[in-house]
Amino acid sequence: MTNNHHQIPDCDKLEALLPAYRMGIADAEEIRFVERTLPHCPQFTNSARDFEALTHLMLTGVPQQAPPPHLKQQIMQASMSHSHSYMKQRAKWGVWAAAAVLLLSFAVIILAWQVMTLRAKQTTLANQITQQAQSIALLTDPNAVRFSLAPVKDTAASAHLICDPEKSTAVLVYDIPQLANEDAAYNLWLMRNGERVSITLLSETDNGVIVMQAPDALGNYQYVGVTRLAGDTREDIIIGGMYRRNG
Amino acid sequence: MRRIVKGDHAALSELYDRYGQLVYSLTLRVTGSAPLAEEATQDTFLKVWQQRATWDANRGKFSSWLLTVARYTAIDLLRHEKNRFAHVELHEEVDFVADHQDQTHPSHRHDLRLMLDELPEEQRQLIELAFYKGMTHRTLAKRLNLPLGTVKTRIRLGLHKLRSLLKDEVPED
Q1: Cα–Cα distance measured from residue A225 to residue A240, given in angstroms and rounded to the nearest whole number
Q2: Do A80 and B9 touch (CB under 8 A)?
Q3: Which of A23, A63, A67 sits opposite B41 (nearest CB)?
Q4: pLDDT digits over A149-182, tens only?
Q5: Smallest CA–CA separation between B87 and chain A, in Å?
Q6: Which pTM does this prediction carry?
Q7: Is there a contact between B104 and A55 if contact means CB atoms under 8 Å apart?
Q8: CB A203: neighbour CB atoms within 10 A?
């Protein structure tokens, strides 16, 4: 302990308590004091060593008595049975630990899966909100134009595009009945100077309306189309239309 | 000890051959009873066996650790004996040196007996009761009807005297 006012180690008190501490006969409070103070009073290191030697002498200097002959056998048997029960207990704990690890891993996987699902839902929701905001902005934009995409082949598909030629965002409203029934993908694309730029795949979950994002202003493109991508890599343009500024 | 740490039973057997008598003698000194000393000796070696992984070679001599374990084990056993101290006359507790002069450990036969004999009776008695019987200062004060401060002072003076005697008899290297 140190003096509260000056923070000076109370080495005198330590000197008085050190013998009993080293001999293992000090009170609990005295033990705490010595252990706190001893590192601050290095002058008593030798003294502590002397009392340690004295303790050793007190432990070893007792009158010697031969233990009963059976005691060794008794101790060896007890240690063997302890080892045996220890191993059994250890094995038992091993099984429990493995089961706990397994359960914990399972719980972590479930939790991770739920987090990922929630994040995906959150992302989808955020995208939908963004698209809705962009749609609303576009629908109220005085510069927006609207034009229809005509069926290229004899399909029941139809669509029209709402966009601002100066901006890259547009809304495509489409009705492709076969989208829900066929095992094929429908690709929305733009064409500029004869080069087709793929934008996105249409999905029935879009409910017939998507907000599409072109690489740059829509006014730079000449044609909009949707292509059916069949499993045999054959591509059929089902609807398309020339981009028209006047809607 | 390294072999014991690895769980080698043969090493435990050798350890007992080497220290068994020392441990038994110490526990007998503490408990004053052969059956209790047997129990304490067995408990001591089993503790060493069970806690072998906790032994740290850097913290001092193995024999000191073993005998300290033995001492506390024996004191604990003794404390479990109900009203043990109430029925034992103090002179029975402290006269072991005179009774067993010829049976002490060869390397300490003279040292401890002679050193303790050098102390005033009231100091020797207190030190032995505290060290070998595990009596606290308060218990000693109550049992001997002495002020607590007197008990502490006598023990301190006695231990300092023993230290001086030890330094005289065993010069430092």
Answers
A1: 4
A2: yes
A3: A67
A4: 888 767 778 888 888 888 888 888 888 887 777 6
A5: 22
A6: 0.56
A7: no
A8: 12
